[in-house]
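Q: Two folds, back to back.
A: First:
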Amino acid sequence: MTQTTTPWWDKGAHQDRRPFLTARSAITKAVRRWFEDQGFTEVEAAALQVSPGNEAHLHAFSTEAIGPDGQRSAMHLHTSPEFAAKKLLAAGETKIFDLARVWRNRERGPLHHPEFTLLEWYRTHAAYETLMEDCARLLALAAQTLDTRTLTWRGAVADPFAEPERVSVAQAYARFAGIDLLATVGEDGTTDRAALAAVAAEAGIRVAADDTWADIFSRIMVEKVEPNLGFGRPTILCEYPTAEAALARPKASDPRVAERFELYACGVELANAFGELTDPAEQRRRFDAEMDEKARVYGERYPIDEDFLAALTHMPPASGAALGFDRLVMLASGAQRIEQVIWTPVAQV
């Protein structure tokens, strides 16, 4: 087969990428030092898991484990080290971080790669607002390490030393789409699909007959909200509706929303964080709902890690965050494609 593009290992191509790769190494060292100075323990979660994660729209790489007796069991490369990390919290760890290799199928583009690095960290007995402060410090640390004053991507800039703007999801939908999102959410967190469909259509959002509330919510987010986040300074988008809580606990003062936030800079999503849910029954309900949705849309589902649900019973209150490390390096170094900051990119197939 004829090679149509220059391979990453070509000497000229490698020399072009090398400044970004050395920037990655410098930020890696600085991040490790920062967490260690904060009293964190670095851990290494096993990549091969019973369940890769139970989010409807995340797709895993799957394989098979063969025992000494020849018995075969389905296994998956994790999409996040979250399940393993929380088991460590249940075991007694209190402040941990992992520069974890993770895998997500069906993902490739300027900001996506099949194999990438998540910087994931957890603090027990800490408010999730503490992680907002951690995120701000990590942005500043990456820029300071490279002696740059700005984060950049595709012409957009953000000041990594500025305090991030905190905006609730409801505020963002009102500001950028003219939609009263919480008017479509009940006091118990249930959602009104018809109500959201109506206001979305008024805002110029396409709504299909078979769209769920979550589908419409996501489309508004992608088309109206995300393109406006993280310009000039970083944005922390917080208080997601409970229906979009994933593994986050409901906010005590308002059960319609959850202790979940995402960090944006230059219009790029960098991190996703939770005040962690520790109710195994509620977590099982959410996992079942996510896998039902996955089956509806993609015709497949992943198993639930029963060991993880058992560990939640013993897990102390905690907050945790997952930050796309490659993206952080991109924005701090000025790289335009994620392959520029990955030492050995996965082959195109």
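A: Second:
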Amino acid sequence: MSHTANSHIADAKRIALVKRALLSMQRYSWEQGVAAQALLESGDTDLAFLLARDAVNRQDASGKLGVMNDGYSVTDSAANGEAVARAAQVTGDPLFVQGAASMLDWLLHYAPKTEEGILRHVIDKPQVWIDSFYMAPPFLAVSGHYEEAVKQIDGYRKLLWDPEAKLFAHIYDDEAKSFIREAHWGVGNGWAAAGMIRVLASLPDGMTEERERIASYLQQSIDGCLAHLREDGLFHDVMDDPTTFVETNAAQMVSYSIYRGVQLGVLDKNYIRFADQMRAAVHTRVDESGLVQGSCAAPFFDRPGTAPESQAFFLLMESAVSRYRETEGGES
């Protein structure tokens, strides 16, 4: 058996272990959402639809999906949206159809927003978080609300982008007009990149100007991240603060975004070497139980450990590199 074949078998075993560990960990709405998305993009549609069904079963009266003691969030629940919408499209089951419609209705008509109409992240506070880049705009785009998805991306970019650091800050207070957390959180910048690439994947070709603008945001974001890539292929938890711990998940998130960006034609193929470097580094951080170690750790995100979103992004990264290789007709 060739070295390449052995490598693929090892990768497949690792993916299976990571998936198993993910399913043992996901709890909250955004965790369930990113898990369902990872399964969807990995081609495990039946399992993604099971998570989607549970997300609808735990939909609250406002329309937010998968709520479990995290109803304080505005956008996290929308991370479940694409899986629920896909299940509605494929099965026609009224459970999914109504579930997706109610989630969409919340985002469009009831969710708290800034004066400019940009979705906040916390119901009772005037805060805009970088996490929302990933949670809501992709679902809006998948649902055909392209202009609204673009509006949200533009709004988050305007409020959170630090042009000097060429990175995104974490939390902005829209009433105080100042940052609550100005730190350039690695995983947060990963949420932004992954959210933008998913929106780009859904926008129609006719929206040329909008596609080009978001593609420019994406490239600037990835360039800003790569300026802080360590020799070992990983980032610090706060990307431009080397006193913070070395973190795993941001590398997966940026790697995923690069593979998909090159495949979609919005990033140059020269970025692939960085994606490969980050992916190789991440593979060394997966333990014998399939846990992606050294990630910004749930539930408090103040130390290295494990997190459902990190498990999910390993799967997303692996599905993205697989699709990229199929497009290129071989190894990257």
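Q: And?
A: The radius of gyration is 18 Å.
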